[in-house]
Design brief:
693 residues, alpha+beta, Rossmann fold
Length: 693
Amino acid sequence: MTTRSSDPRSLNTTPPCAKRVPHRLECHGHVRTDEYYWLKDREDPEVLAYLQAENEYATTLRSHTRDLEQTLFDEIRARIQPTDLSVPFRLGDFWYYTRYEEGKEYALYCRKQKSLTNPEFIMVDGNELARGHDYFSLGNWTVSSGQDILAYAIDTQGRRIYTIGFKNLITGETIDEYITLVTGNMEWGNDNRTLFYSRQDPETLRSNQIFRHRLGTNPQLDTLVYEETDETFSVSIEKTKSKRYLMIGSHQSITSEYRYVNADYPERDFQIFQARKRGHEYDVDHLGDYFFIRTNNEAKNFRLMRTETKKTEISQWQEIIPHRVDVFLEGFELFSNFLVLEERKQGLIHLRMLGTTDGSEHELDFGEPAYLATLGDNFEADTPYLRFGYTSMTTPMTIYDYHMESREKTLLKQEPVLGNFHVSHYQTERLFALAPDGVSIPISLVYRKGFARNGTHPLLLYGYGSYGVSMDASFSSPRLSLLDRGFVYALAHVRGGEELGRQWYENGKLLYKKNTFTDFIACAEFLIGQGYGAPHKLFALGGSAGGLLMGAIMNMRPDLFHGVVAQVPFVDVVTTMLDPNIPLTTGEYDEWGDPNQQQFYEYMLSYSPYDNLQPRSYPHLLVTSGLHDSQVQFWEPTKWVAKLRALKMGSQRLLLWTNMDAGHSGASGRFKRYEETAMIYAFLLDLAGSVKI
């Protein structure tokens, strides 16, 4: 029998014996024993009872901060404008936008024809679609070339398995036609009746097939136009800027390949653009008479090429933007008279405009030490306006239209932050910490003005450091609840991201993965040494692959951090990477290594958080999870916490909170998602002794 106790420690020491028999895992002659392997089955009533007991235990331990959690949630919600409207973007004859109505959790997806002064047409109401579901996400939507049919994809579980629905935008009627069990990625052909979409493997959830659907026909008879048989690749479908070509992209960590077809003739076969070659990554867009290609061929930081429409082989590509050692070409945007480059220099995004008719060149200047600039909704090529977004740790997301000829900026919208917020109340800095191997690691941080660097303040350090994902300095209105209570918030730009170019990523993956962990520790020690925080009030936060970072630094330096928050953490690295049936595994051998090769097995075993737990004192820890998570399976954080309960010494808090109705991204809804944020903030404020309701 299973003991039903609010203390999950009892669940770790009491049978059912049949399920508690340690699981033996052998690889390369090395044997690991996993006492909590039985927790993998999300359909098992005993497992569900265990998770519920953990939630009850976490609720008990949080009972003294419930008022604070409610205060924080109310505070965060009060900063959000009750009714809100996105900046409309033009697509053909229509302006499209989303808006929120007061008190409602989900957006309305709307459009107006030709002029924003014309009457509004509500395409779909997310609140109506969400009715009766504990979780809801409208993951993607696209309008047919004739702009009369809407295709939209919804997920009501959180596992990112979608159903596509259709709506007639002329009559307003929902079409009784659905395509189930898909990824949500889709594009229309130019015949106004053909929809291409991607479907995933039902077990691994790898996007591996592209289908063609003819509106008005049985989806079960849809045509498979491409199947990706290499289990390390995933596929997607997209349309070029010119709207002339449909592109099927096959991608893995270090290799890509495209196929294309003229969107006017969607029944034709797709042709290979440039055959895959291991290590060659490229992206393709089209405008006018040319394909434009961002490629890392003989260019670690990428360069930009172009080629005539009928000459797609790499031998025909012509260079227009060369490779540069100190500049990472992150992306580009095509216009009739301009080419816009999204370039990363010294860790920061720069937007550079090149006139394609007059040879002019200029950059946008943003003027802050740390920020995020991003290309916005630029769907039309025949315009002098560039839509872009700008944010920093003190500046809410701000959307501009920039006239590339007159060089004038038009402010369209700044994210509204209600209450007593003002940019001038906060200060941001950019610092550099020295890693053990002598490399300088950038840090972006923010605090409320009046802060004194005297080593007394609570400090929260955030990190990620995987997949080449750059974590830029951006604004967060919920974060103000920490800053206004004396916290310093810092972002460590550790290796494994791409902030300082491609090499920055490569030096934090595979057999260099430990650089990510030592970089983070170096940043923490530097900030404490410089007086930005108190040693006994130092906290760390990371999620997903950033949760791996949290687990690793806890094992390496359990004495350094007072508390840690690990959100949906990837902590059972070896077991997961040895199981090709788990979503994401096969596609990530080039990120973490293939443990079927002994060198990688031994290396990841040396840092895997779950495998390196020991009987010792650990920081206070809050772990979050989602039962339906398709990226980090729920059992990873569950097993990790179970093993920690058995091994940890001391009285530090250990909480596991599993959202039983959600997946990797947590709760859905405009406001409900912040309940978890309030829980995390209350946990940190309580430990810091900064509980001020």
